[in-house]
Amino acid sequence: MSEFTTAVIGLGSMGYGMAQSCLRAHHLTHGFDIAAERVAAFQAEGGASGPLVSCASELDAALIVVLNAAQTQEVLFGADGLVPQMKQGAVVIACATVPPDFAKEMEARCAAQGVHYLDAPISGGSIKAADGALSIMAAGTAEAFAAARPVLDAIAEKVFELGDQAGAGSAMKAVNQLLAGVHIATMAEALTFGMTQGVAPEKFLEVISQCAGSSWMLENRAPHIISGDYNPHSQVNIWGAVVIACATVPPDFAKEMEARCAAQGVHYLDAPISGGSIKAADGALSIMAAGTAEAFAAARPVLDAIAEKVFELGDQAGAGSAMKAVNQLLAGVHIATMAEALTFGMTQGVAPEKFLEVISQCAGSSWMLENRAPHIISGDYSPHSQVNIWPKDLGIVLDIAKSAQFSAPITAAALQQYLAAAGMGLGHEDDAAVAKVYARNAGLKLPGEK
User: Strand 273-274 to strand 28-32: parallel, antiparallel, or no bridges (unpaired)?
Assistant: First the structure.
């Protein structure tokens, strides 16, 4: 057994797994929680016993995995506060999501007691916590990092070292939570919107997780809903020819076009596309297609030439357009949310380059974040996909939602940002230029702007 002694305060879904990871690293590990059964369960797995007051002076590190700033402060400096009892040179590793100024205050108060403080909010979920594979957005002195290293090595797969003063980790976590929270809500809005259009939740996950509307949270949380588990062209008029319709249109419009083509002896494949201009040039688009077997057969040479993935969604037009509407809901909201989060981070001292480096590897990531944030960072708004696409596509989504008596407030809010961007004369720029709306409202200069 190692001589390194760790206490984990808060044995919830994340803290319990982190405590287990410390045990596997052969730390003498104490676990504490207001739920006595969790403490007993951890001790049964090999956790050290005894009250906190009796071991506090022996601790090399205290992992604080509680809910918020108030609980963190109570643990550290409350009536039975931990920090005054800790030995000189020990380290507090504070993992709750808290305001940056609070983290700075805690660092100063710990330093006055001769205790190091690492501002170390976490990302990754309970499974990664149990596997010792969390991502940690950490900031603190070199001494704090050195003192915390045995614990970081035990619980984390990635440790982003964001600065030598507390606060920077919490700022980055706030940015991540903005994205992650909106992505979960948008996933729920999109999945249920899809259901109103006949898109089964299982098919939603299968298709969208491989398209531009995907996000870390969608891939992680949609399975919970699906399982019910809520624990943590030119005119064509020759028989046998095919119209391959790629625009984003309402499902009822696609059904009408299929019927009108059929009346002329022409096949119609409802085949909206996803992937952007680069994938189009590479023949690597994703196509969400629906139509008769004959339509698919007639279209196959074209599909094989332009697409990397073809999702066959049914034998009647409309299903492809319904899925594309779901994808555009997600993709459009994700771009706007990325822009909001990136510029919000700038107000907290998070550089755009660091934003991309860290968040692309955390729960706040999305396909659109990884694809569009580099455009902002480089200051290059040459249009891969124009701002003007989104008032059109999100307008279609909202028209469909209205017909289905479905409320889509997140989509509506994102639409307003694209309309604002178009009103600023940005309509023909890359859709990442929606970030300029947020930046100008905050008095910020994005990379490349004078």
Answer: unpaired
* Cβ burial 402-423 (10 Å sphere, 16+ → b, else e): eeeebebebbeebbebbbbbbe
Catalytic residue (one of 173, 203, 255, 436): 173
Helix (H, G, I), strand (E, B) or coil at 287: strand
Residues found in the chain: 450
450 a catalytic residue: no
**8-55 pLDDT tens trace:** 999 988 999 999 999 999 999 999 998 999 999 999 999 998 888 889
CB atoms within 10 A of CB 204: 26
Give the N- to C-terminal CA distance of the chain in Å, as an integer: 59
Asked if residue 389 lies in contact with residue 368, where contact means CB atoms within 8 angstroms, the answer is no
- Provide CB contacts within 8 A for 227, sequence distance 6+: none
Give the pLDDT confidence of 172-216 residue by residue, as tens digits.
998 988 888 889 888 888 998 988 888 899 999 999 998 889 999
Distance CA 310, CA 273 (A): 9
In 256-299, beta strands by DSSP E: 267-270, 273-274, 285-289
> CA 240 → CA 67, 265, 295, 296, 299, distances in Å?
63, 7, 8, 11, 10
Pairing of strands 122-123, 134-138: antiparallel
DSSP 275: S
Q: pTM to 2 decimals?
A: 0.77
Q: Give per-residue pLDDT as tens, 379-434.
A: 999 877 899 989 988 998 898 899 888 888 999 999 999 999 999 999 999 999 99
